[in-house]
Amino acid sequence: MTVALLGVAGVGTLWGIWTLAPSGIPFGEKESVAAATVPSSMPVPLGTPIALTERIAELEAAAEQAASERELLLRELSELRRLIAQSQTTGSQVQTDGTFDVQELRSGEASTLQENRISLDLGIDGRLQRLGLDADAAASLRARFDEAQLSELYLENQARREHWGFTELHAARTASRNELRQRVGDTTFDQLLWLEGTPNRVEIVETYAGSEAARLGLQPDDLIYSYAGKRIFVPEEIQELTASGTPGEPVDVEIRRGGKPRIVTARRGPLGVQIQPEREAPSDSE
């Protein structure tokens, strides 16, 4: 299952590679990353250190792309399994053509998988229209989106020209993400993630018996919207926040269940859940 174990630091970036730890690789105290498969026929360049460095950069980029594609496939597999399990308890049927009988699903639980596919198929302009902004606001948001994308391209170009390593590029991307978020604010940042087609939510996959999450009544499919007053967009953020502050101090945790907000008071520390990145169109109230 595509999950992250809460309470342990992970890593994430914004444009192009939002979650460096693929959703199929759990965040945990001992992270394990499957080795990338490189075709045996692929030549390994010999010669100057510059040529070798360029080859390393190419392989790193290929590995990142493969990780991103693997993440999408594993998330789809996880969603299919969840829907099958749900159909066994609710009577919902999976059609022979591979589509889902959404009408028979519980109210407010239309397939996240289908929603994600729709959001990606819409393209940037379609996702922009989905936000329901007026013409001026939509134009302003699109301009900011284009600016962020160009900034990312220039950053990648600089990394290639200067032969940065993976760590350097990740640090630069993280700094760029944080600067953008501070400059535009959480609401606009959320909209930019949506336009990118990047996960912008953290979903609970499972809760552990005896955990803080179980005490609070948190459930699978709940979205962790904020923790201690800070918006959450990726698993890394909730992991960092639960490990900061004073252990055991009361903090508000806002979740979204079936699209409706709910605030509970938790004791700061591990919630005791498995989480994964998710995608959701921002609403007007956010």
Structure description:
The protein is α+β, with helices and mostly antiparallel strands. It has a domain of 78 residues: PDZ domain (Pdz3 Domain, Roll), CATH 2.30.42. The chain is built from eight helices and seven strands. The strands form two sheets. Strands 4-3-5-6 form a four-stranded antiparallel β-sheet. The longest helix is centred in the N-terminal third of the chain and has 42 residues. The chain is globular. The two termini are 30 Å apart. About 23% of the residues have low confidence.
Tags for this model:
286 residues; alpha+beta; Pdz3 Domain; three-stranded antiparallel beta sheet; 7 strands; 45% helix
Concise synopsis of the structure shown:
By secondary structure, this protein is α+β, with helices and mostly antiparallel strands. Helix content is 45%, strand content 13%. It contains eight helices and seven strands, in the order βααααααβαββαβββ.
Q: Beta-sheet strand percentage?
A: 5-15%
Which stretches are low in confidence, meaning pLDDT under 50 for 5 or more residues running? 5-41, 86-114
For the record, the CATH class of the domain at 201-278 is Mainly Beta
The protein's oligomeric status is single chain
Number of strands: 7
Dominant shape:
globular
- Supply the CATH architecture of the domain at 201-278: Roll
Terminal Cα separation, in Å?
30 Å
Going by helix content, strand content and strand pairing, the class is: alpha+beta
Helix content: 40-55%
Helices, by number, come to 8
The fourth-level CATH homologous superfamily of the domain at 201-278 is: PDZ domain
Question: What is the N-to-C succession of helices and strands?
Answer: EHHHHHHEHEEHEEE
Strand count, sense and closure of the main sheet? Answer: 4 strands, antiparallel
Widest β-sheet, arrangement of strands? 4-3-5-6
